[in-house]
């Protein structure tokens, strides 16, 4: 089985998207996963011409755009150049904010499709919380309708929206693969799936190999990171059983390096992370 290696653009703060594409390709990656806050304040500010230019940069570098992540909010310790719209809250008690956030999610999906990406990772822990003033079951139902509409929209652009389970210390909405797949099944649309983040799964105490084997047919993306927020093999995550499970289910999506600790520097992270992935999978 040939594995496809990817790296997230927020590994490279301050770099141009074109430079990231070129460096990722020469380092040995097949794809880049974009975080919009690294190149714009709002995805609606990115013109059609700029999207085509971005797609052209990827083509010229010979690298794919796997998709996008960090949809609603920047990660504070990364000190991004830009900030997403501050009002984004998918499950807000305010129906107007929910509606505006849903429309922004659609804009993100459209952007992803127009630059040639195929996967929209719904992480953004704080911006998807179900607030205390809404009974959780009601919030879940409202989220289900939002995700169903988003999945239908994603189909128009040949994009998959993938739910990222995130540990309960960061969000109360979708903490485990079981939670993600409950939503996937209730929505019942082929353009809504789930993805695995190894750091998040470790912090939630998930049996990752078991989850991969149970839900492997709906797994479309994997963030490869360790519990110390760095690249695989630098922390406590036991990766070999995860690797075996991914191989056993025939996983064919991207293995995407997503680190939150940017030490020592982007170049070292990219190179050492790729070495670690190759040791694990090859």
Name given to the CATH homologous superfamily? Divalent-metal-dependent TIM barrel enzymes
Low-confidence sequence ranges: 74-83
Count of β-strands: 8
Shape: globular
Q: Please provide the ordered H/E string of secondary-structure elements.
A: EHEHEHEHEHEHHEHEH
CA radius of gyration is 18 Å
Q: What is the helix tally?
A: 9
N-end to C-end Cα span = 9 Å
Strand content: 5-15%
Mean pLDDT: 94
> What is the annotated CATH architecture?
Alpha-Beta Barrel
Helical amount: 40-55%
Q: What is the topology, as strand order, of the major beta sheet?
A: 1-2-3-4-5-6-7-8
CATH topological fold name: TIM Barrel
Our count of domains comes out at 1
Task: Give the class-level CATH name.
Answer: Alpha Beta
Task: Describe the fold and architecture.
- 42% of the residues lie in helices and 14% in strands.
- It has helices at 17-27, 48-61, 95-114, 136-156, 177-187, 198-204, 208-215, 239-248, 266-281, and strands spanning 4-8, 31-35, 64-69, 119-122, 160-163, 192-197, 219-224, 254-257.
- The protein has one domain (4-281): Divalent-metal-dependent TIM barrel enzymes (TIM Barrel).
- With 282 residues, the chain is an alpha/beta fold.
- An eight-stranded parallel barrel has the order 1-2-3-4-5-6-7-8, surrounded by seven helices.
């Amino acid at each position: 089985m040939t594995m496809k290696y990817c790296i997230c653009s927020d590994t490279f703060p301050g770099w141009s998207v074109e430079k990231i594409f070129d460096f990722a390709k020469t380092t040995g990656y097949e794809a880049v996963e974009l975080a919009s806050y690294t190149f714009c304040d709002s995805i609606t500010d990115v013109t059609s011409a700029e999207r085509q230019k971005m797609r052209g940069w990827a083509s010229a570098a010979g690298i794919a755009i796997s998709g996008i992540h960090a949809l609603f909010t920047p990660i504070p310790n990364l000190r991004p150049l830009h900030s997403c719209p501050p009002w984004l809250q998918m499950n807000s008690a305010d129906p107007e904010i929910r509606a505006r956030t849903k429309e922004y999610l659609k804009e993100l999906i459209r952007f992803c499709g127009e630059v040639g990406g195929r996967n929209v990772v719904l992480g953004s822990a704080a911006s998807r919380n179900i607030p205390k003033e809404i009974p959780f079951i009601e919030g879940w139902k409202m989220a289900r309708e939002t995700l169903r509409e988003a999945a239908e929209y994603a189909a128009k652009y040949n994009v998959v929206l993938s739910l990222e389970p995130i540990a309960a210390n960061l969000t109360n909405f979708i903490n485990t693969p079981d939670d993600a797949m409950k939503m996937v099944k209730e929505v019942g649309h082929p353009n809504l799936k789930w993805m695995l983040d190894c750091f998040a799964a470790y912090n939630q105490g998930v049996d990752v190999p078991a989850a991969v084997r149970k839900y492997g047919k709906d797994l479309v993306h994997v963030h490869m990171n360790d519990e110390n927020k760095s690249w695989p093999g630098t922390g406590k995550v036991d990766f070999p059983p995860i690797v075996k499970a991914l191989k056993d289910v025939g996983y064919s999506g991207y293995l995407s390096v997503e680190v939150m600790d940017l030490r020592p520097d982007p170049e070292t992270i990219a190179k050492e992370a790729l070495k670690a992935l190759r040791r694990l999978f090859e």
